[in-house]
Design goal:
The structure holds two protein chains of two kinds.
Chain A lengths: L1 H26 L5 H26 L7 H18 L4 H20 L7 H20 L19 H20 L1 H11 L1 H6 L4 H27 L9 H14 L4 H18 L3 H18 L12 H8 L13
Helix pairs in contact in A: 2-6, 2-9, 2-10, 2-11, 3-4, 3-5, 3-9, 4-9, 6-7, 7-9, 10-11, 11-12
Chain B lengths: L6 E10 L2 E11 L4 E6 L5 H9 L6 E6 L2 E2 L5 H7 L1 E4 L11 H8 L6 H14 L1 H5 L10 H13 L5 E5 L7 H16 L3 E6 L2 H7 L2 E6 L2 E7 H6 L1 H7 L3
Parallel strand pairs in B: 3-8, 3-9, 6-7, 7-8
Antiparallel strand pairs in B: 1-2, 1-4, 4-5, 9-10
Helix pairs in contact in B: 3-6
Classes of the chains: A mainly alpha, B alpha/beta.
Chain lengths: 322, 239
């Protein structure tokens, strides 16, 4: 038990230090505006990648509707603060709820589909969301929703990321997560073990969609303007690539993938002509040499660091973090 | 039979779209029995098991278990009532470890102590699984996977176990081993409905048997009598 407490303490300290260093860096201008933007984007991408991994990696439902869920969250949240003038916390709640409802609406009818059929159906959903938003004047039509209050700061992003990851981690480690894994491995056998596969397929969709909705709300209230065209299938593919590079079915892998690719993308902004070429090349290289993703299905834990450098002297063997 | 049967199929019909797979099956399994269902490919053996466990829906007729109608009960609730199925082709969770597979067998249960006890029992029964407890199930041999699938079903603590072709793809020696395990499990109180192509083995272990041909039961009776039946000998026992 004591070891467990120790590792919780270590993680809290590490997170606190990370938070404080960045906060100080932002407030005294040591981190340039460009990198602050990318840092925030990184946080949003981590939430997107981890939540997509819950659907695609842990439950094995190949969804391509993430941009759609994010758009639903972004617009629902934007309407709350901008059109209705209500407070930001309410925008988060409504954004997540709206995306969760969208998750049920997509999840239920597409349940019987698997693999590429499900991918096509969810891809279609994302496009429908985009086109519908483009034709609603109340949210600005094609020119988008403007003048969204600029309320997202580093503490909000940081707390959102940590809470999202904690939620997914606990979900995956619970019996619910086990049920999802069983569905992924073999849904017939899962059914024969008493797993309600309908429930878990929809549940994964709902939780994943709600978190994508959260990412959308944060995105809207950081950039202050959102347009339907930003939520095209390209965004879904960006997120999917992060999940694949990190490792399908690894939560820490999603974090690594999101951090790596956001950083790469930020550096490559300097050479816009070659950006997509190099980005694509990175993907091809990783697909050839590491098709299962950087981490595969493994997780980075404190024990990993222990093994790597003997940092904690073999005394605090823990499996606390995922 | 004087006592009400544990499982009772009455005029069961199952369709796959336009295909009429089961054409009015009547079958009973009494408490403590081993009942075998034999027949050629496509006769409807697996379909019968799948209908019982609720994975596919019956188009008409009834299935009752312990006197309760379970025809419309969804698959995940049938397990909770005490029916476990060892599916054809084993279907272990290939990317999960042996232990995780067994733990998933206890998915519906909450009694931590009982689960621990049953886990120990399963590992005692299958020492080979104990040796490979941390190994990923997909890397086990065919026989070991079959043992794991049976062990996983035992973890649900079933009253009735449905076994779908446990001998499939196994070496003769392993088939013998698997069948003696099935007999053991039965002697410890679990009723068994066994579907097999290996009619010889199936008739040896069973007390009663049914012969299924193109969706209809054509013969039934005590297993020993069926084993002596000329038609059965010709069709299923190789003369």
């Amino acid at each position: 038990m004591q070891k467990k407490h120790l590792s919780v303490l270590i993680i809290c300290l590490a997170l606190g230090a990370l938070f404080a260093i960045v906060q100080v860096g932002i407030s005294n201008g040591m981190i340039s505006g460009y990198w602050v933007t990318n840092l925030f984007l990184m946080g949003i991408n981590i939430i997107l990648a981890a939540s997509l991994n819950l659907i695609n990696g842990f439950t094995g439902e190949f969804s391509l509707g993430h941009a759609g869920f994010m758009a639903v969250g972004a617009y629902a949240g934007g309407v709350i603060t901008t059109n209705l003038g209500l407070p930001f916390p309410l925008a988060i709640v409504v954004g997540m709820l709206a995306a969760a409802v969208a998750g049920v609406l997509v999840g239920l009818p597409t349940l019987r589909l698997r693999g590429d059929y499900l991918a096509i159906a969810t891809l279609g959903f994302g496009e429908i969301v985009r086109v519908v938003l483009m034709n609603i004047d109340y949210v600005g039509g094609a020119s988008g929703l403007k003048d969204i209050p600029d309320v997202v700061n580093w503490p909000i992003i940081f707390v959102s990321v940590v809470l999202s990851l904690l939620l997914i981690k606990n979900f995956v480690r619970s019996s619910h997560g086990r049920a999802c894994l069983a569905v992924r491995e073999n849904d017939l056998a899962a059914q024969m073990m008493g797993v309600n596969i309908t429930y878990y397929k929809v549940l994964a969709f709902v939780v994943g969609a709600a978190l994508a909705g959260l990412a959308g709300v944060l995105y809207a209230h950081y950039y202050t303007i959102i347009q339907p065209k930003e939520f095209s299938f390209l965004l879904t593919f960006d997120v999917l690539v992060m999940v694949m590079v990190g490792g399908l079915g690894s939560l820490t892998g999603s974090v690594v993938g999101a951090v790596l690719l956001t950083t790469a993308s930020a550096f490559l902004q300097a050479i816009p002509e070659l950006r997509m070429v190099i980005y694509a090349l990175l993907l091809i290289i990783s697909a050839i040499f590491r098709p299962q993703g950087l981490l595969g299905e493994k997780e980075v834990t404190l024990r990993t660091f222990q093994k790597l450098g003997g940092v904690f002297n073999a005394t605090s063997g823990s499996k606390q973090t995922q | 039979m004087g006592v009400a049967p544990l499982l009772d199929l009455e005029d069961l019909n199952v369709h796959y779209g336009a295909i009429w797979a089961l054409k009015g099956i009547n079958l009973t399994v009494g408490e403590g029995e081993i009942v075998s269902l034999i027949g050629a490919n496509g006769a409807g053996k697996s379909t019968t098991l799948r209908a019982i466990s609720g994975v596919i829906k019956a188009s008409s007729g009834g299935i009752s278990f312990q006197g309760e109608d379970i025809t419309k009960v969804p698959a995940h609730d049938v397990v909770k009532m005490g029916i476990a199925q060892v599916p054809e082709g084993r279907r272990v969770f290939a990317n999960l470890s042996v232990l995780e597979n067994l733990e998933l067998g206890a998915y519906i249960r909450k009694d931590t102590k009982g689960i621990k006890q049953d886990l120990d029992d399963v590992l005692d029964r299958f020492p080979r699984l104990q040796e490979r407890i941390g190994q990923v199930a997909g890397t086990l041999s065919g026989g070991e996977q079959q043992m794991l699938a049976i062990g996983r079903a035992l973890m649900t603590r079933p009253k009735l176990m449905l076994l779908d072709e446990p001998s499939m793809g196994l070496a003769p020696l392993l088939v013998k081993e698997i069948f003696s395990i099935i007999e053991e499990i039965n002697q410890e109180g679990t009723t068994i409905l066994l579907v097999e192509q290996n009619a010889r083995m199936a008739l040896q272990v069973a007390s009663r048997a049914y012969v299924l041909e193109t969706g209809r039961i054509v013969l039934d009776g005590p297993a020993k009598e069926l084993a002596q039946n000329e038609d059965v000998k010709k069709a299923y026992l190789g003369g």
